[in-house]
Structures are given as structure tokens and as C-alpha cells.
Amino acid sequence: MSILKVLSVFVIALWLAACGHATKNGVEPTQEGLATKTLSAEEAEVEQQVARISEKLKDEPTVKGWLLVGDGNMYLKRYDEAVSAYREAYILSDYADEPKRKLKRAMFLATIALSK
């Protein structure tokens, strides 16, 4: 199973667990409360997956792997780390368009984040 599918399954499972936990305790979940719990659970899961994939990439670097790490860091708003990951993907891909486009976007957002 691909890493993307595994990540999707984990996120859905966490969301379902959060929904079940809220109603099981007799508290009706509100949209606001549920979104906050799910978001932090999603962020934790994405952070865990990024760390796991990064470890694998030390032994077997791949373009797809570095793109996933970059995408995860973009989701977590860690733009500098995303720039590093996309740079690795760009170099490994022999300067393909997709990593280049993602690298440019991450660099732009990192620059904006620095100016705030």
C-alpha cells in the first residue's frame, strides 16, 4: 500500500475515533469543538508520518518521498522545512516541473512568514 493511502486511512480513522469518543461520553460534539480536536489529531498524525518518511529517505531517497515530506511540512506551515524537502525532490528529479513549482511556492510562503 502506498504511503499516501496509509496516511489517508490514518487521518480518517483518527477523525472517526474523535467523533465516537465525543458521543460516547454523553457530550454532543459541536462543529467547533470537533474541528479543533480533529485538526490537532490530524496535525499530530501528519507530523508523525513526516518524521517516519524522513527517516526512510535517509537510506533510500526518492522524489515521491521528498514531495510527501514537503507536502506534509506545507500542511503544518513549516515552510523552511518544506523548502528543504522540495529542493531535494527537485534535484533528484533532474529538475522536473512539479518539484520546481512546489519549491517556488514554499519559498514564497517562507519569505512571507519571515516578513511577519
Give an overview of the whole structure.
Helix 1 packs antiparallel against helix 2, helix 2 runs antiparallel to helix 3 and helix 4 packs antiparallel against helix 5 (97-115). The chain has one domain (3-115): Serine Threonine Protein Phosphatase 5, Tetratricopeptide repeat (Alpha Horseshoe). Residues 21-25 have low confidence and may be disordered. The chain has helices at 3-24, 31-59, 63-75, 79-92, 97-115. The chain is flat, with a radius of gyration of 17 Å. By secondary structure, the chain is mainly α.
Q: List SSEs in N-to-C order.
A: HHHHH
Radius of gyration from the CA trace? 17 Å
Number of domains: 1
What is the global morphology? flat
Task: Summarize this structure as a short list of keywords or feature phrases.
84% helix, TPR-like_helical_dom_sf, single chain, signal, 116 residues, Serine Threonine Protein Phosphatase 5, Tetratricopeptide repeat, 5 helices, flat, Tetratricopeptide repeat-containing protein, 0% strand
Write a compact overview of the structure shown.
By secondary structure, this protein is mostly helical.
What's the structural blueprint in terms of helices and strands?
Blueprint: H1 3-24, H2 31-59, H3 63-75, H4 79-92, H5 97-115
